[in-house]
Design goal:
This protein has one domain (about 10-250): SGNH hydrolase (Rossmann fold, 3-Layer(aba) Sandwich). Helices cover about 35% and strands about 10% of the residues. The chain is built from nine helices and five strands. The protein has helices at about 15-20, 25-35, 50-60, 95-110, 135-140, 155-170, 180-185, 205-220, 245-250; strands at about 10-15, 40-45, 75-80, 125, 175. The two termini are about 25 Å apart. It comes from Sphaerobolus stellatus (strain SS14). This is SGNH hydrolase-type esterase domain-containing protein. One of its GO terms (molecular function) is lipase activity. InterPro entries: Iah1-like, Lipase_GDSL_AS, SGNH_hydro, SGNH_hydro_sf.
Length: about 260
């Protein structure tokens, strides 16, 4: 049984997406501004790369034959790369060409009319991995018992961020280039990325604030029709309830996304 009458925003990614539920995280803030308009579903998967995410995608996205009976997805964000960019021998590593193919898979699965997961009204936004702060990350890993060798490199992560932008350009999908936003904001000084990060990899509250603002700017520019200020409430405002016909006046309005 499903009690959900609101369409959704689905956030799909790794631990950086999963962490978006922390206080003032980008997922929490989206849920607040889209309250009574779109439900926010966070499918961040700590430790996952784009390869492992494919079978998850197939389980969380309704097939065309099932979509009439479930809430629609107004916005689907894809935020992988931070784990794919791990250097060998990490088991999280995904070769760059394969990573690009995986990101393209998610797009075509939703946008190709021949796909069993085709979702005509779903808007897609890609997000690049943030830059890695190897100074912070290295210190964090060395503090563990036993110490762990550095598992990511600055320039390698940059390559995966560039790959996301290339896939977005090729498929006509907007990209939140958080890699560049963060790096430019600290004067392109890797050590200063600590401003946005807890451990050189995961975002702190200030990092999520910048991430949220960047995502909202992209929605405003690319998909203004689903900006939270443009969407009506699914249920009628209290002042519009007909006291003589309460039952009918509060029926859900599933607006077309």
């Amino acid at each position: 049984m499903s009690a959900n009458v609101q369409d959704t925003i689905v956030l799909f990614g790794d631990s950086i997406t999963q962490g978006g539920w922390q206080p003032n995280g980008f997922a929490q803030r989206l849920a607040y501004v889209y309250a009574r308009k779109l439900d926010v579903i966070n499918r961040g998967l700590s430790g996952y790369n784009s390869e492992w995410a494919i079978p998850v995608f197939k389980q969380i996205i309704a097939k065309k034959s099932e979509q009439a009976n479930v809430p629609g997805i107004a916005l689907f964000t894809i935020w992988f790369g931070a784990n794919d960019a791990c250097i060998l021998p990490s088991r999280q590593h995904v070769p760059l060409p394969r990573f690009s193919a995986n990101i393209a898979y998610f797009i075509t699965a939703l946008k190709d009319p021949e796909s069993e997961y085709y979702s005509e009204n779903t808007h897609i936004i890609l997000i690049t991995p943030p830059p890695i702060n190897t100074y912070q990350r290295g210190a964090d890993l060395q503090s563990r018992n036993p110490p762990v060798a550095l598992d990511r490199e600055f320039e390698v992560t940059k390559q995966y961020a560039e790959a996301v932008k290339e896939v977005g350009k090729r498929h006509g999908v907007p990209v939140v280039d958080i890699w560049t936003v963060f790096y430019d904001a600290v004067g392109r000084d890797e050590k200063k990325l600590a401003k946005f990060m807890d451990d050189g990899l995961h975002l702190n509250a200030e990092g999520y604030e910048v991430m949220y603002d960047s995502l909202i700017q992209t929605i405003t520019k690319e998909f203004p029709e689903i900006h939270y200020e443009k969407l009506p409430s699914v249920f009628a405002p209290w002042a519009e309830i007909d006291l003589k016909d309460i039952e009918n006046s509060v029926q859900a309005n599933r607006f077309k996304i």
